[in-house]
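Researcher: Go.
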Amino acid sequence: MITETNDLLRCFGTGDPLYERYHDEEWGLPVHGDAALYERMVLEGFQSGLSWLTILRKREAFRVAFSGFDPVAVAEFGDDDVERLMSDAGIVRNRLKIAAAITNARAVVALQQSGGSLDEVVWSHQPPRAARPADWTAVPASTEDSTALAKDLKSRGFVFVGPTTMYALMQACGLVDDHIVGCVAAQ
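Model: Structure:
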């Protein structure tokens, strides 16, 4: 559904300035670099089952709690860090998701140590550009490409990276462009 605020037509995010900025300035634009992609992966994982706006509102606290999403730093987190994170009201306190964030940081570091990068793995699964969706009913929850990305990441030691979460990552990081027809961000 296209909604209008500030004379702009948006496919989502209208009504909250933080959400509008995310829609207008970030969602669907290409994201590169291991730390930036790791951040998006962690946030998408924490968002599972929650509102994306909830995660956006806590994003700065997540950045502080997870050492600026530096995979090398997070890979060193131990039990004391897990307990610290579990007591941090600024983030979503879910032990499984916290553990996944640490495991995935270690997987990013392992990729880097083997001469690869998260950036290369993620972007190797970019599909050909598809027709712009006419409305949200035309936007899939997952695709063959997100399923392949999930499988690839799991084979490299990543966890909590199912096809739906990976499709959300692909949308957020610009591998696919699902801004619907008529949206100000549709290009």
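Model: Residues 100 and 111 are 16 Å apart (CA to CA).
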